[in-house]
Amino acid sequence: MAELSHRPLRELIEGFGGCDEYFTEMISSGALISGGRFEAFYLDTAPCPERVVFQLLGSDAAQLAGAAAFLDRLPCAGIDLNMGCSAPAITRTGAGVRWMADIDRAGELARLVRSRTKRRLSVKLRTGPGDNFDYLLDFCRRLADEGVERITLHPRTAREKFRRRARWEYVARLREGLSIPVAGNGDISSAGELAARSGSGTCDAVMAGRAAVRMPWIFAEARSIERRAETGQAAPNPAPDTPNPNIEETGLKFLELLARYQPPEFHISRARRFFGYFCDNLKWAHYLKTALNRGQTLAGVEQVWKAYFRENPEEIRAGVFPRKGL
Ligand SMILES: Cc1cc2nc3c(=O)[nH]c(=O)nc-3n(C[C@H](O)[C@H](O)[C@H](O)COP(=O)(O)O)c2cc1C
Q1: 209 CA to centre of ligand 1 in angstroms
Q2: Euclidean distance between CA atoms 28 and 39, whole angstroms
Q3: 78 and 153 part of one domain
Q4: Which of 154, 194, 206, 269 to mutate to test the pocket of ligand 1 (most atoms within 8 A of CB)?
């Protein structure tokens, strides 16, 4: 996720026990092959390169293939093509979900990229330009024929952005219709939901987006739920292996990681993005987000963050107040 799924967030999630795989922020293929100034930060896959998937964004097939060939040399879990981003600034250029408007164009891209990398090749996409499952299935079959090995579906149309609910039934139907694994994504808002979707047998993997920013411990909590389900244990509340994170410390840790691993030019925008979701663990989230957004430096953000918990010490632990949805 742009400005969110970078090393500091991965470090935070790893601190709670980690997850199976991480996707990078979308990386502009053009900037990557022309040696953009900040590319080293986008390519930083620590602390677990073998579980990081590079995601490429672009509208030019030759550029995307060149970028894939470049990434092929780096340790990673795979290379992913972004065919799902619906932000107007991206679709205007022919990138993101615009690839889904033309099956042949997308198929040729997949073939070209396939010819330049031996890494696991995947595509992340939406339902498509409209709500047409047959079109989605044809589109994904063509990608699979061209050598794409995995699909992640966020089952909303290009126009819907985050409106309506994600149509998870399309994930199950797509998996039935394809011979390659299908991961589902969209609207996971709790560890219970993550565990339930993962165990549902209707998809090969589940991707959590915004919820993983709001609750970097969500994977640990889901594992604890799964373990209890496997052993048939009644769930004491809270279960002994359920994380009970300190919200204040987690926010401070994030600021420290941001300062350590990201360039100063990225600090404020990325702090705002993170706290835009992380504050939703708290009762006075709206007030706090406004106050944090006034901060111009990480030190300023830290001051506001600490002051909030001096005034609201009962909020230091997660779960005191009911968590909001996404
Ligand atoms: C701020 C933000 C940035 C995002 N950036 C990307 C991105 O770079 N690549 C991508 O494939 N999806 C991106 N997404 C979409 C998410 O990966 C995901 O598909 C979407 O948020 C739905 O999943 P969720 O309900 O679990 O968040 C982004 C979403 C948000 C909110």
Answers
A1: 6
A2: 9
A3: yes
A4: 154
Residues near 247 by beta carbon (within 8 Å), at least 6 away in sequence: 278, 281, 282, 309, 315, 316, 317, 318
Q: What is the pLDDT of residue 231?
A: 84
Q: Are residues 59 and 135 in the same domain?
A: yes
pLDDT of 241: 63
**Same domain, residue pair 112 and 218:** yes
Residues 89 and 181 in one domain: yes
Give me the pLDDT at residue 36, please: 86
- Amino acid found at 42: Y
Determine the distance separating the centroid of ligand 1 and the alpha carbon of 141, expressed in angstroms.
Answer: 23
Could you confirm whether 140 is annotated as catalytic? no
Alpha-carbon torsion 248, 206, 85, 128, what sign? negative
Q: Is residue 324 part of a domain?
A: no
The DSSP bridge partners found for residue 184 are 153, 206
Whether the CB of 214 sits within 6 Å of ligand 1: no
Which tens digit of pLDDT belongs to each residue from 83-127?
Answer: 999 999 999 999 999 999 999 999 999 999 999 999 999 999 999
Q: Is the CB of 84 under 6 A from ligand 1?
A: yes
- Candidate list 85, 140, 203, 279, residue with the active-site label: 85
Residue 277: pLDDT band (50, 70, 90) is very high
Distance separating alpha carbons of residues 70 and 119, to the nearest angstrom: 11
Alpha carbon nearest to ligand 1 atom 28, residue: 1
State the CATH number of the domain containing residue 58.
3.20.20.70
1 lines ligand 1 (CB under 6 A): yes
Whether pTM exceeds 0.70: yes
- Domain extent, residue 227, equals 7-231
How far is the C-alpha of 95 from the C-alpha of 67, rounded, in Å? 15
26 and 150 part of one domain? yes
Instruction: Reply yes or no on whether the pLDDT at 234 is more than 70.
Output: no
pLDDT in tens, 15-35: 999 999 999 999 999 999 999
